[in-house]
Amino acid sequence: MGPISYVLQLIKNSPNLSKLEIWVRATSDDAKDALKYLGTPSCLERPLNKLEHVTIKIFKSSKVKLLFVKLLLSHTPSLLSMHIYQYTSIDTNIALELNRFRRASPLAELFYSQPNS
């Protein structure tokens, strides 16, 4: 596996992480392999109990990145806010899907926007 598994290993090995900022440009991960990996229960076994704030800056959206965001939303019971900055045009279907997705934290707010140029 490639960069996605490395990022998840860093997150899993940082139990006291309270704030996370990720810049996602291009990934060398094979989409099929990455989707399969992100869908396995062992991908992220334990909840991220101290993570409260997440910022993700995405240069191009994809199914893999969407699944990664869903994984974080479903495993962070202490999450207060997740900001997703999309550098290309915002896909309204993806934004709607993320807003409807069930979160582990009832307090979590999701912000989806384009940064000012």
Structural notes for this entry:
By secondary structure, the protein is α/β, with parallel strands linked by helices. It is built from four helices and four strands; from the N terminus they run αβαβαβαβ. It has a four-stranded parallel sheet, covered by helices on one side. Helix 2 runs parallel beside helix 3. The longest helix has 12 residues. The radius of gyration is 13 Å and the shape is globular. It starts with a helix and ends with a strand.
Structure described in brief:
The chain has helices spanning 3-12, 31-38, 63-74, 92-100, and strands at residues 19-24, 53-58, 81-86, 109-113.
Kindly state the mean pLDDT as a whole number?
83
Output the number of helix runs.
Answer: 4
How many extended strands? 4
| Gross morphology | globular
Look at the helices and sheets and give the structural class.
alpha/beta
Work out the helicity level: 25-40%
Percent in strands: 15-25%
Largest sheet: 4 strands, parallel
Strand order of the largest sheet: 1-2-3-4
The H-and-E topology, N to C, reads as HEHEHEHE
Runs in which pLDDT lies below 50 for 5 or more consecutive residues are: none
What gap, in angstroms, lies between the N and C termini? 34 Å
Rg over alpha carbons: 13 Å
Protein name: FBD domain-containing protein
